[in-house]
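ok trying this again, last paste got cut off
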Amino acid sequence: MSNDSPIGVFDSGVGGLTVAREIMRQIPNERIVYFGDTARVPYGSKSKDTIIRYSKQIIRFLLTQNVKAIVIACNTASAFALEECKKEFDIPIIGVVKPGAKVASEATNNGRIGIIGTEGTINSKIYSEFIHEINPDIKVFGKPCPLFVPLVEEGLLNDPVTDEIASRYLSEFKDKDIDTLVLGCTHYPLIRSTVRRTVGDKVTLVNPAYETAIELRHLLDKKHIANIKEYDSPSQMYKFYVSDAAKKFKDFANSILPFDILTTQQINIDEY
């Protein structure tokens, strides 16, 4: 392992690309190996033990790619598996929940924060725990939005169906007087415009992806493992792996990343 070793980033599917995209923007010298568990998406309805098992399998795969640090770019896996993985693997690992909770706590003016995420993330109450560590007086209102992930995975980002589901899920926040809403799943920034139309302009939307990239940059500097070498092309810097549907993933990634990826490789994650 060296300073120009890559960062490992993983998610249940395409959602973690929002985190990878921010890493590309905020730390442009860093190489990335991304894994999307497209065969087993979504994670939000699965048990804690299953999420821990999946996460450890993926980390074992990423370690074969000689990564120097790992970002769990999935709120559900961050909620359920981050601490267990830190105990087992001798490599810096960060998640997306704590950075999101921090910026939400700083953003709110009236102390009323909404959290949307998968059933697993919301039921874990991990956002509430982190927010209350920062400020115990903040009121937190969680809402599971399980259909958002499959809608994003199917590419229905600007579709009347997504608008209708968003309206049903988010209507209850109107009575809560929230001024801040955390997009507590890395898929959700991809339907940010839909959420914005639904909750209105007075609610600040928090995307933990940006804060996670900043935390990663601080971690690399602190550990003295930041890369200073420059690369000529993205194809030299970024590799993408999935557990299923490689072409579908590649097509989707090319629609949201700042460049076209040329290849996505499918692997059998159960081997790890």
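PB: full thing came through this time. Strands lie at 7-11, 32-36, 69-72, 93-94, 112-117, 139-144, 180-183, 204-206, 238-242, 265-266.
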